[in-house]
Amino acid sequence: MPTFQPVRGMRDLLAEDAEAMTFVMGKARETAQLYGYSEVITPVIEPYELLSAKSGEEIRSRMFTFKDLGNRTVALRPEFTSSIARLASTSLKNEPKPLRTFSVGSVYRYDEPQRGRYREFYQADFELMGTSNPEADAEMILLTDRLMKTVGLRNYAFKLGHIGVIRGILSQENVEEKTQNAILQRMDKKEFDEAFKLVKSEECLSTLRGSLELKSDDVFETAEKIKSHVEGYCKAVDSAEELKNILKLVTEGGCQVQSVEPVFARGLEYYTGLIFEVYIPELGIALGGGGRYDKLIELFGGEPTPATGVAHGLDRIVLAMQMQKCAPMMECARKVFVVPVNESMKGEALRISQILREEGISAELEVMGRKMNKALENADRRKLDYAVIVGERELKQGAVVVRDLAKRDQTVVEIAKLAKIIKA
Hints:
The protein has 424 residues and is an alpha+beta fold. The chain is built from 17 helices and 16 strands.
C-alpha cells in the first residue's frame, strides 16, 4: 500500500501546533470583539474574475485556479479582501457605516515553500469600510499592535508608507495604470533598477531615485522630507500630508512606529493610500500588513466606498512566538484521567467523567482495558494532571481516589466535592 504525505506546501497541524494556532485565532477573535468587528465567513472558492481583478500580477500568477463541473473558472482565495468587498457591494450594502468585519481561515498561494511561507496558510482579516478619515487607518495599526502584545511578542516593529505618494508622481507624469502597477510590483520586491527602467520622464525618474535617500531615524522627519521632496506633484504632497496625520494619530494612540519608508510598496494592486507591515527582528518576513483601498468596492458594482484593512499571518505569528519562546497563555484547564478498577466499575467511571465535564473539567476515560499501573503510566506520559480511580470500596462511601500525577500522592475525595477540589 502507498504511504501518503500532504501535498507540497500543505501540512498537518498536530496537537501542539494546532493548540498554538487555535490560541492565536482566539486572540484575533478577542481583538475583533474589543474593537467592534463582526465575524463573517466567506467561501474558500470564489470566481476567478473576482479574485484576480485587483490582486496584482504576482498573486494572480500564484492562485490555485481550475474549472468547476459547470466549466466556470474559479480559484481558491489568496486573501480575504476581495471576498469582503464583494459582500460590501451585495449583502452588506445597506448596513450602516462604518462597517467593521472580521474573518479568519485558510488562504492559498502557490509560493515556493520555505520557513514561514506555505501554500495553505491562515490569516485573520480586519476590514473597516465607509470612511476615508485617517483615524480609520490608525485603528488598523493600533489593533495590530494590540494583537501582537496579546500573543506575547516582543520588539515587534511597524513600517509605514503611502502608496499615494508614488502613484501621485506617476499619475501626474501620465504613466498608464498598467505601467504603474508593474513599477510598484518591482518596488515591492526591492527591484528598484528594474522598476525605474519603466519610467520615461527624467524628472519623474529623478524624483523616484531621490526618494530612496529620504529615510531617517526620526519617522516624522522622514514624512516631512517626503512631503518636501515631492513638491510640485499635488496628489503626492496630499498623500505625504495624510501619512503625517496618520502617524500622529498612531503615536497619540500609544503605538510607536519604527520606520517610514518613502518607496514602500505591497504586492496588491488595490491599495490607494496608507500601507503598513509589522515585523520582529528574528524573522525577515512580515507578520501582517494592510492598507487603504478606496476603489475596490466600487469596482465590484457597489457604491463608491472608502475602506481600509489589515491581514495577519497566523502561521507566521505562531512561528514568531516559537522563535521568541512565547508559550501560549492558555487557560490552565485541569486534565483528568478516570480509571475504573475493574469491569464492574465502568458505568460509574462514565458517570463521574460526565460530572467533571459538566463542571468544565477535561476528563478522559480509560477505554483500552489496561491494568491500573499501565493506565497510570500512560496518563503520566501524556502529562495529565490527575487520575480519578473509581473503586468499589470508596464508591460505597460516595467517594473516589484522586491521584496527583505530578506530586505522586493521592487522597480519597467525596464525589460531591470532586470538581471543586480538582479546580482548586
